[in-house]
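User: Hi! Is it possible to get a structure for several chains at once, not just one? Here's what I have:
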Amino acid sequence: MSEKLKVTSKLRDPLAVIYTEGYINNQGGEEIARVAYELIDAGQTILLLNLAGTKIVNSIGISILIEIIEKMLEIEGKLAFCNLTPTIEKTFHIMGLTQYSSIYADEDTAFADLTSSA
Amino acid sequence: MADSAVSREVNLTLPLLPDMEIAASKTATAIAELMDMSPDKVDEVRMAVVEACINSLEHSRSADQKVYLTFAVVKEGADEKLRITVRDNGVGFCPDDLIEPKIEEKLKAARKRGWGLKIISWLMDEVELQSGPEGTTVAMSKYCDRRTDE
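Assistant: Yes, the chains can be modeled jointly so their relative placement is included. Here is the combined structure:
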């Protein structure tokens, strides 16, 4: 029954893209945070979370994403999201994440916008 | 107000164990799809059920370590809705003590959780919360898309 989240990343200079596949619950959120903090420690200041492979999240997982946003604000970096399902996007709006991070339809659109403002 | 009648009902009892919310969400999805809800509405129902279940898992501290779900297809005149009840026999809480979470405050706070009920109330059409020393019940409904076609 357990649906473990798979997290991978790719450098797409000047940003780093984190890909998820599966359910973002507390363990999933922690795995995303682990990868994000490794990238931040390596000097990345713009992170794009591509959720194309995630159809379900819960609020505990999103709370961990808020911790990453907090970290990005501290380092004056950016966390952005792309390829969200309509419900995940609506949930991010409800929770107010969109006040501190941008949402894009797809990775290329995000890349174009984030690199033009980088 | 139109009379309401339950046309179908499914009961599900789950142990309060990690990931049990996935089983609940699969049942909710199957029933909502049978009702011909749009994929977006099905997704919203699924997420609301996940949130209600993890609230029980995280906070109920119930002795029986179970959560009881009822999925009812309810006819209200020409309308049809899915009513989902998520109940536990836990310690409960005072609903008046609930504080609406705000992102500005959560960003600075050590504890960033506490969003479940806010998410449920936004995703579902109707939400009722009852809580006390005998446990907590969240009753939530989502109307089907077909109501204007009939």
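Chain A touches chain B at residues 1-3, 23, 25, 55-60, 62-64, 66-67, 69-70, 73, 85-87, 90-91, 94-97, 99-100 (CB under 8 Å). The first helix of chain A runs from residue 26 to 41.

User: Great, thank you!
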